[in-house]
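Hey team,

Filing this mostly as a record. A colleague (T.K.) asked me to run one chain through the structure pipeline before their review meeting, and I want the input and output archived in the tracker in case anyone asks later how it was produced. No errors, nothing strange. Just documentation.

Input sequence:
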Amino acid sequence: MPLASFDLVHEPWLPVRGLDGASSEVGLLELFEHAHQYSGLNVEYPTQEPALLRVFLACCYRALKGPGDIDAWRALWRQSELPAQGFRDYFEKWSDRFDLFHSEFPFFQSAGLEPHNPDNWKQPRALVSYMPPGDGVPLFVPVTESADFDLTAAEAARWLVERHAWGPTADKTGAKGNPALNSKIAKGQSPVDTPQMGHLGWTGFVGPVGSTLRETLLLNLIPFDELHSQLRSENRDGGLPCWERASLKPLGPKCDTRSPKGICDLFTWQSRRIRLRADPGQGKIKDVLICAGDRIVRSSVQDPHTG
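Output structure:
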């Protein structure tokens, strides 16, 4: 099937585990509509789960417009299901922002991203955290550098979210117009010129888990008034996730260093500029470009998922 688009709201790409132990894949809307029927996620690699959970939480904050305080949270907890209509309305409004291959707003990507060197597009394996690097030794991994490896759109979407959260400082492919970030030039440059480790890679992740995915989401959904006092956030409504912002542009000679503007900004932090290219004939991801993204001011962040 041609990959002209891949709608993350409806296309199956999220592996879930039912209460009976059965596995299946669902889209974002189905995940929230039936969260009470899933015990949790069933991802192929552990680092994907917390990264995806934080994306889900950003969706919850925006779709539910809260909870604003502990009373609103308790009202959600007393219900047997998440308020599905709020998610339907939200995804209908922002449907174009959840297309993996949108021409202007590809999900978690930068539409205009090009490599400084036209030959620097990477194979899809570059997006997968456990794959051995081309010049490295494959230790404790299930594949070798010479193994055939393809990514479907669903698999690429999961690794895309994971890379922003956990990305290593080895991501040094230079973006067009930003030669300072080229892998051969970046050595010896100031740290501000090189990619920062993904936020979760720096802090780790600690979070409560419930008996169902609905419970897990709510246990991690801190009311806005608590967030404001704990995180000293200037945004009392949680701020905006990356998909509600302007299209991500490739960075110039310096990375953007700033503090998160609310919990939704933090949970969807764009630590990289990434672009996927698909092979319509094969129904697979053809190649990927991973460059430096926004640098977070570590001292300004009090993350609710740190120990």
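Quick notes for T.K.: The radius of gyration is 19 Å. The beta strands are 14-18, 23-26, 38-41, 257-258, 272-279, 284-292, 295-296.
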